[in-house]
């Protein structure tokens, strides 16, 4: 057919066949032969343009596609692909005009309306984009591209809740289309209805057995429905289809970490960032998880610095042209940036600070970047600030611009490398002074963050300074204050004869229960006849987690009957569970924070082991602030001796337990007003340094 006698139309038809088979270079050659015979052959012009687009040569594709639409101004495919070429070159305004012509030429084309919506979305015309996606879905309810783009547009508009109704309509119209089922599953899960999402996620996976994304979202629905073991299998199935699928690697690593498989999780997150170097969430998760390992603190510091250097290189030089009034004594505008302004441990140590701020000294704006549901804690925090911004749907550049537009003087990150963080915003330096505080026990690694608030026990001078890219601002007291849960039950006296009583307890994440901690705790159990260890964590609701915990202790000669394993409980039940514990064992090298405060509040002494970094020294900071320095051990052997001393005198232990809540109430650990003065002094010092540097740059006014 491709002989010398072939007509231009026949050559174009053969080119289309080769293109469909993926043989793009051969198809392009046939299209060129056809155009040599007839430069005005519409089919050949289209084939040449489409082949060039598929080869990524958008600029070269413009000429044949323009020639085609010049010959046939209402050629719908020609217009659609010309729009694709312009869009691929970043010329969204021109692309939108051409897509509009394509939509007019093909009134039944859902693709033309979807593509028009995409171009409008890139231009920031989000409401118009949503209208075009709705038109596309009216034409084809199962249009996966339109559903995905619509989700993004509604998120950017801060209207994610509208997605569910649209997905229900799409799925009702086309239940046999995997994209419709998949997007409905996602919308239900995001609405907090993981159990309802499961049948649709399974249907999506069944309808497209080769889709890694379908298995990923099935895994997410399973995990959020409390079926972690099945979720692991779904993530593995996604990776069997695509071993480099970074979102599945990220989720698999998260599940591994939840089970306490920290080394495996770090290795999986390393695979994720190798597969997708720009995947910010996976990078942050990997760094967070590395804190659970007993690696040298210097190695952790280097890993954080490498991340920071990569992000700064991506973003480019941070601007220094802030036009904030450089008056060192004026009222400061302070912005708090967090995904945790809700029922979350960070909120419990932020609330006393917000309540204690001197409003004559600081004006406070909260930047809430959590995309999920708000709660009563959110409402309380809203009442403690001067301004509140719901900015979860802004990208990093837009969020940085919003902070700059608010003329924030001191921007405070409260997340570090924990989930939902927005550290790349700080890489853009939207505020003159930038601080990290509370949410993360290590450096951000960003040279654009000026200060990290801490204290001299958690980060001793000299030892800690060289590990941080930030300057360490050590508060003259413990670095935090805490809001005890209200209501909370009064501690009950421990009855040694109660068959439910456990000598030891740990309510921390399994990620923190390191093999080294297990070995030491097993030693305590072996040395204390009849003693049991109560481990409480949400992951322990799963058979895999329970079996793993039992296996770790069995390797040290501790049988399963010496362990009491408990999963997630409601807040009141969680607090009351402390009444069964004589002594709480702080894990290492990553100690507890709110878990330690809760234990003390409920009358349970906590024994901690000091290490070489903030994560393994925060327990010491809390206990020293509570006047409980005798519970701080410097070596594993001393840890054992501290526990033995507590257990050797039961009368003294009961007396200690009775007085712990009163001791806590009399300590700096619940004194938000004094904390606020110390924090404001740190902000003022950082602000004064910036004012001095700005005057030095621009000279006297």
Description:
This protein is α/β, with parallel strands linked by helices. Among the domains are: 332-475, Rossmann fold (3-Layer(aba) Sandwich), CATH 3.40.50; 502-670, 3-Layer(aba) Sandwich (Rossmann fold), CATH 3.40.50.2000. It has 30 helices and 13 strands. Strand 8 (502-506), helix 23 and strand 9 form a beta-alpha-beta unit. Helix 4 (58-71) runs antiparallel to helix 5 and helix 5 (76-88) runs antiparallel to helix 6 (92-105). The longest helix has 27 residues, at 672-698. The relative contact order is 0.06.
Descriptive labels:
Rossmann fold, 701 residues, 54% helix, 30 helices
Quaternary structure type: single chain
Instruction: State the end-to-end distance.
Output: 81 Å
Quantity of strands, as a count: 13
Strand content: 5-15%
Specify the biggest β-sheet.
7 strands, parallel
Number of helices: 30
Indicate the CATH class of the domain at 502-670: Alpha Beta
Rg for CA atoms: 30 Å
Query: What's the CATH architecture name of the domain at 502-670?
Result: 3-Layer(aba) Sandwich
CATH-defined superfamily of the domain at 502-670? Glycogen Phosphorylase B
- Which outline best applies? globular
Helix content: 40-55%
Fill in the CATH topology of the domain at 502-670: Rossmann fold
Kindly name the structural category. alpha/beta
Low-confidence spans: none
What is the spatial order of strands in the main beta sheet?
3-2-1-4-5-6-7
Overall pLDDT, averaged?
Answer: 94
